[in-house]
Specification:
Shape: elongated
Largest sheet: none
Number of helices: 13
Distance between the termini: 60 Å
Strand content: under 5%
Number of strands: 0
Order of helices and strands: HHHHHHHHHHHHH
């Protein structure tokens, strides 16, 4: 969604920006989008390192990495809401809506098709799927007073926190996000709660329009060394999203295949001892993890485990080894 200024000075208390629009881009928004894209690339690079065994499995799904990923998604969707208002606050331009929807939905379908072949990496409702759906839903909120939009955002967030039902566990309804147990998926951005930051973005954009803040923001230019690359990424966010991960994953794959391989054994033992220490003694964990690494290396399970490529048969063998190693220490 292009971030162009459509606000002016006078408007009613509940109306979108008036009709005197400007075609000037708001560079600050392009830069903000560019920063979010760079952050996303950093996270995906870490995911690639994990996928090829350079980082412990599930590293990017916990701790600071998890909050980092959520903050990136939140910032993207907030900017979607802001841009939606700036583009259509004076009235919905349906040809532009359908064109953008076709681009984003098409890219989302391409991502799903490509990740279908990645072990454990299938994306069936990720950030692009969410942007396509949330952009359509957001159109219904553009003419509301900003407090009403904030209330709707709070309602969406509260529903996700306080309600679930088995019917939403059906695969056809996973996109809603109200299943009692969330499906295991990469880049999962369901309607509840991820419509929330889009609505907050719309509300903030409405409020800023009422106070004439967009006019002032359009005058801001950042230092050239910072502005140029980030604003370029921000203006071409969809292309950036589609090409950055194949490039990053290809780089890690080539490095791992032709130059060096990670030390899977040390990585596993370190991860094993940290996880084990939550419930067992240090002595037990040291003996248990040593037993596991010996058995996994002997049965060629270590590399498939560390790269998340275990077959069902290998997974079952690994569970047997785990039970045996636990039994030996008890």
């Amino acid at each position: 969604m292009k971030a162009k200024l459509v606000t002016a000075s006078s408007q009613s208390s509940s109306s979108p920006p008036p009709s005197s629009a400007s075609s000037r881009r708001i560079v600050v928004l392009d830069v903000a989008r560019g920063i979010a894209l760079v952050a996303m690339a950093i996270y995906h690079f870490a995911w690639d390192l994990e996928f090829f065994g350079w980082m412990a499995p599930a590293t990017t799904l916990q701790g600071g990495w998890l909050y980092f990923a959520r903050s990136i998604a939140t910032s993207f969707l907030f900017l979607v809401g802001v841009s939606l208002f700036l583009a259509h606050g004076n009235g919905i331009r349906w040809p532009s809506v359908w064109k953008r929807l076709a681009q984003v939905a098409g890219a989302a379908a391409l991502i799903s098709a490509a990740t279908w072949f990645v072990p454990g990496g299938f994306i069936f409702f990720g950030i692009l799927h969410g942007i396509a759906l949330f952009s359509l839903i957001g159109l219904a909120f553009l003419k509301l007073p900003w407090p009403a939009v904030i209330a709707a955002a709070a309602g969406v967030f509260a529903v996700e926190k306080g309600f679930s039902h088995e019917i939403f566990a059906l695969p056809a309804l996973w996109w809603v996000g109200l299943a009692p147990v969330a499906p295991q998926a990469n880049d999962y951005v369901p309607l509840f709660p991820w419509l929330t930051p889009v609505l907050v973005g719309i509300a903030v954009a409405i409020l800023m329009g009422k106070r004439g803040a967009w006019e002032s923001l359009a005058e801001i230019n950042l230092p050239t060394p910072l502005q140029r690359p980030l604003s370029f990424f921000g203006r071409n966010s969809l292309i950036f999203y589609l090409v950055h991960q194949p490039i990053l994953m290809g780089m890690v794959y080539l490095f791992t295949t032709f130059i060096a391989q990670p030390d899977y054994a040390n990585g596993f033992v370190a991860q094993c001892q940290v996880s084990c220490a939550n419930t067992r003694t240090e002595q037990f964990c040291k003996a248990y993890c040593t037993c596991m690494i010996d058995d996994m290396q002997r049965e060629d399970l270590l590399t498939p485990f560390m790269t998340r490529r275990l077959s069902e048969a290998q997974h079952n063998r690994l569970l047997e080894k785990r039970d045996m190693c636990v039994a030996k220490q008890n």
